[in-house]
Amino acid sequence: MTRNRQAGISILATLIMATLMLATTAWGAGTLTPVGSPDAPIEIRDHHAKIVINNGFAQTEVTQTFYNPNPTELEGIYAFPVPRSASLSEVTIRLGERELQGEVVPKDEAERIYQEERSQGREAGLASKQGYQTFEFRVSPIPARGETQLRFVYYQPLEIDTGVGRYLYPLEDGGTDELAKSFWVPNTEVKGNFSVDLELKSAWPIADLRVPGFENEAVVEKLGEGHHRVRVERQSAQLDRDFLVYYRLQEGLPGRVELLPFRDDPSKPGSFMLVVTPGLDLGLISGGADYVFVLDVSGSMAGKIGALAQGVSKGLGELDPADRFRIVTFDGKARELTRGWTPATPEAVTRFSEEVQTLATGSSTNLYAGLKKAFAGLDADRATSVILVTDAVTNTGVVEPRKFRELMQQYDVRVFGFLMGNSGNWPLMRLISESSGGFYAGISNADDVIGQILLAKSKVTHEALHDAEFEIRGVKTFDTTGRIVGKIYRGQQLVLFGRYEGSGPASLELRAKLTGEDKTYRTEFDFPELDTQNPELERLWAMSRIEEIETMADAGFTPADESKDAIRDLGVAYQLVTDETSMLVLGDESFARHGIERRNRERVAREHTAQAQRSQQPAQNRRVDRNKPMFDLPTPSVGGGAIDPVSGGLVLGLAGLALGARRRRARNGGQRW
Q1: 523: how many CB neighbours lie within 10 A of its CB?
Q2: Domain check: are 36 and 19 in the same one?
């Protein structure tokens, strides 16, 4: 590895390490009480999370008991950070022996009915999504000096990256909603029992499992070759720290294609999740690149910017004198500390290391101005990587997402974003990164730093496939998400969701380019006429489709009204809480009185039946390309020994640092990168 390649790794590694050293100064999940309220806050008596990870997706079930210490009935309000790609699918409220269940309806209708039921003194609940930041649960009434139990369930797809899986149970808030903080007083304390119970089933052997931050209290049981259970329990706790579990698969596993279908009626379309884990011979690359560090110094980054500055200073010290750098900061406006490309001489490194230590936070956030200044003065003869660290909650200057996409399209440079906190604006960061051909990753304060750096090395130092696209033939598939990939990096796992009609033989083809050469990978497998084991796939597909629609709308490709209608219709049809739908929680008689069809009750019953059956079985191997392997090589692994595993998304972001050089070099030689 060349010195400047090592420098590239070290720069970002030290930057990331510094960002993770300080916790965000924000409240996390908890009950909310208006500022100035004379009432004592609603207490959380117990908090229990039960997670099952099985064959590519996770089911998270949260059960909490609330207690009202006041002498009068109150409405209880509970906030919970939105997990990425989570489909909130089930909400129940238990009041004594009475249980209320949830049905998803359009958002305005749900709010109207909830307020009507509440004003009549009837028991009711409401679950809604507040943008990309929080799910909000309302329960009325919580009896005076009495208890109420809230239970909710969500599903989310998980990916394996370089042989490592990561599950995040988000509790900590990123501190980005200033208006909410000025209105609400949060109560994050669990008075009684707090527990997290995670069951992991993998069809592939698990070599290592880690629970960072809970090593001394987590009870880890190995129940089988790919079957583990993790339990954390304590009396009294604060809901202000994320819970993460990393698991590393056995090395030398084959590159593979896995199919999870669901179809319970041959006369109707089925749903599928296709998981592709490439085994690719991606060669080593070398060469340096210019670096632009773009640092958010707005008010919401208070408490974090000092660590970022320290990381930049350390990273500058690792540069080769032949390399160059720029440092851009932004709050309400953008500034450049370096005033142009600066050779990484010892004198320059010392000077700007001292200067970044004096950075202070401002107020508003003009992210567009920061990126525009970062793109100024790019050198066409040198590869450039833009490293953006922000919560992406832009509120000044240009804020329309499509304008960010238009800006990205003007420059031949990739943006690798690092999104701080659970309530960061991930839709905007996703748009920025994908529009530039880069990646973004969310960073939790509980993430494991050492593993992130170790896994980053294999991605930074290896080339990637580009212009990658999947095609399925033989069986009609439609509304497939994730089909157009763009870039495939070493160790990256790809997940496609879709719908299908018919059954029988199908072929899967992956077309891409590698160093200017066309590459094609193929396999064949069967779509089943019936498979009822994973009914949750319908919701996972619908949520993936909703996210795709949102991205298209943000980029300006589809009208906002059209997108909202499509999201509302999918949310109601598949019973998902979205920006356009809410889950109304009522008794049977209230649903009948309002004429609300019980779609979710039937869907939940079907899912519970399948879950009970799966709980008695080992994880099934869903590989479908055994007879005709799509890839000849094993999937890349992290190497021997037990390491601290990594957030897959963060690794993907790191991957792009070296690849800018490859792209530029290939283009100059007549090859597209």
Answers
A1: 20
A2: no
Are 289 and 238 within one domain? no
Helix-helix angle 426-435:401-408, to 10 degrees: 20
Indicate the residue type of 468: A
Nearest C-alpha neighbor of 366 from the set 394, 393, 407, 401: 394
Least confident window among 68-72, 169-173, 412-416, 458-462? 458-462
Tell me which residue has tokens 């993936």: 544
Task: Name the nearest CA neighbour of 445 among 10, 18, 12, 11.
Answer: 18
Count of beta carbons in the 10 Å neighbourhood of residue 474:
15
CA distances 380 to 439, 615, 666, Å, are 22, 57, 13
For residues 113 and 179, membership in a common domain is answered with yes
| 260: in domain | no
Q: What is the CATH number of the domain that holds 119?
A: 2.60.40.1730
> Could you tell me which of 80, 84, 221, 240 has the C-alpha nearest to residue 166?
84
| 418, pLDDT greater than 70 | yes
Supply the Cα-derived Rg of the chain in whole angstroms. 25
Question: 164-169 and 160-161: which strand pairing?
Answer: antiparallel
Clarify whether residues 235 and 329 are in a common domain: no
User: 3-class DSSP state for residue 655?
Assistant: helix
pLDDT tens-digit readout, 577-624: 999 999 999 999 999 999 999 999 999 999 999 999 999 999 999 999
In a domain, 259, yes or no: no
User: Do 439 and 348 sit in the same domain of this protein?
Assistant: yes
**Residue 151 backbone zone (phi > 0: left; psi -120 to 50: alpha; other: beta):** beta
Average pLDDT over residues 169-181: 70
**61: containing domain:** 30-252+578-615
Residues 195 and 213 in one domain: yes
Position 430 in a domain: yes
595 and 452 share one domain: no
Cα–Cα distance measured from residue 283 to residue 277, given in angstroms and rounded to the nearest whole number: 17
Report d(CA 146, CA 70) in Å as an integer.
9
CA 302-304-306 angle, 5° bins: 100
One-letter amino acid at 422 equals N
What are residue 544's DSSP bridge partners? none
User: What pTM does this model have?
Assistant: 0.84
- Considering the chain, what is the average pLDDT of its residues? 84
CATH number of the domain within which 296 lies: 3.40.50.410
Enumerate residues 6+ apart whose C-beta is below 8 A from 384.
Answer: 289, 290, 291, 292, 378, 413, 660
* Complete DSSP assignment for 206-259: EEEEE-TT-TTT-EEEEEETTEEEEEEEEEEEES-S-EEEEEEEPTTPBPEEEE
Measuring CA to CA, which residue among 8, 20, 101 is closest to residue 441? 20
Task: Assess if residue 272 is contained within a domain.
Answer: no
| Cα 665–Cα 367–Cα 414 angle in degrees, nearest 5 | 15
Rounded (10°) angle between helices 449-460 and 3-21: 150
Contact by Cβ (8 Å): 363, 326: no
Burial code (b: 16+ CB inside 10 Å, e: under 16) for 451-471 equals bbbbbbbbbbbbbbbbbbebe
Number of domains in the chain: 2
Phi, psi angles (nearest 5°) of residue 639 = 100, 175
Do 348 and 392 lie in one domain? The reply is: yes
